[in-house]
Amino acid sequence: MNTSGPVLVGTDGSAPAQAAVRWAAIEAQRRGGALTILTAYDTTWAATPGLPRRDPADAADLAEEIVTDARAAAGTTTFTVPVHTVVAPGDPAAVLLHHAANAGLLVVGHRGRGGFTSLMLGSVGQRVTTHAPCTTVVVRGRSTAADGPVVAGVDSSPGGRLALDAAFTAARLRHAPVLAVHAYAEPLPPVTPGLPPILPPPAEDLARCHAEQVDDLLAGWRGEYPDVPVQVQVAAGTAAGLLVGASYRAQLVVVGSRGHGTVTGTLLGSVGHQLLHHADCPVLVARG
């Protein structure tokens, strides 16, 4: 996970956006980097027939107020992080994605007023999470929790490996353990008419087999991060269900941006959507 670029946070002035700004400020301090607070204002609607006309300068003034308030919110969290602000005209998603090209991390809230943080509500959130060129964090739930593990959804896919890279990096920054979560499906015995069913392996044997696979996957990271304690949860069930459950005792949940559909899945597929809707802590989507 790239930790060299600034932490970029998008804000529209809503309460979830302010929470995202505070989280981003703390994260920038952990990384020893800078914080960039960005808001954009779209003036194209001002000339739309049927809508009241509005001076674009008014929208710019409002945007300046939003970043000023956000900077103050960041200042209540830390005073040692260089803070830069950006106010730009244009489509919010496009502006944010443009500036994310030089960021080490992109942070947004989980909902808002139709700007950056309307993650579950419209096209802005879908575009940002689908096309962001860097790792993204969606701040939700207990955004200020300072204890608990960093939870990583793990499988053998490239996305699973991205998740582990990001999780171990985040855990080291937080002096926290990694909880590696692996979900598997219990096989159903095949049924052939006229023949007795072929019974699957005993549940404990299946769990042991998956646990050994996870231990093999983790070996490299255990060696690279000997200072990071590792916990493992291997269970039958759905990846989303296990990760959401683990989020209630975590300070961060990490998933990869692509995968098999077991743990990491596709970001905007079922696993990603369920985490972004239901996780009780911030969700980090690792991107290679």
Automatic annotation (TrEMBL):
Q: Which SUPFAM superfamilies match?
A: Adenine nucleotide alpha hydrolases-like
Q: Which residues form a coiled coil?
A: none
Q: Which Pfam families match?
A: Usp (PF00582)
InterPro entries, alphabetized? Rossmann-like_a/b/a_fold, Universal_stress_UspA, UspA
Query: Which CDD domains does this UniProt record tie to the protein?
Result: USP-like (cd00293)
Q: UspA domain: from which residue to which, for each copy?
A: 6-140, 150-287
Protein family according to the UniProt entry: Belongs to the universal stress protein A family.
Please state what the protein is called.
Answer: Nucleotide-binding universal stress UspA family protein
Q: Write down the species.
A: Actinoplanes teichomyceticus
